[in-house]
Amino acid sequence: MPLRRPGQASGHPYPKGHSTTAHAELFTQLREDDFASCPYHQADDWGAIAQAALAFAAAQRDSGDEPVDRSAYAAHLTDHDRGWFRSLIRGHIWWDTGQQHLTDGQHRLCALRAAGVTVVPVHGRHLPDHDETEPAVDGRTRARRTVADHWNNRTIALFGPGLRSRFLARLLIRYPRLRALLANGK
Question: Do residues 123 and 92 touch, judged by C-beta distance below 8 A?
Fold first, then answer.
């Protein structure tokens, strides 16, 4: 089954500004062979890469002005994964302060989430809707929640709170073809 971008004549009416929800919907539809065809998902061990990057970031933070040898933190990684390690510490995942989206690093973050990595260093200071008291969840669970929250909020906005909205939201979450009924805000 070919993948379609959410929002493209496929019964996924996401209003302008809901690209996060559309991307989350697409993420939930990807299969292992889809991930395997993406070069970002071909690292040997994203978990080990992330742990090495976190250890390096902590050492760099604690060193003050002293330089930190990054090769010591990547020595246990394969040659291939050392390249991905360098991409995390040299070509940062950028999250601009005050923004609701990444400005660079989306593909790497997608690969990290798909591999089950829940913590990774990012360059920036603002992480919207991040609650340190909640345990991190895997990428698919997070994506499903994003989609469910969107449809719950959308039905409440259209029909008000109540049983009817909750029931309709559950149908829209489970049966994407029904979403065409709400196209263009109807």
Answer: yes
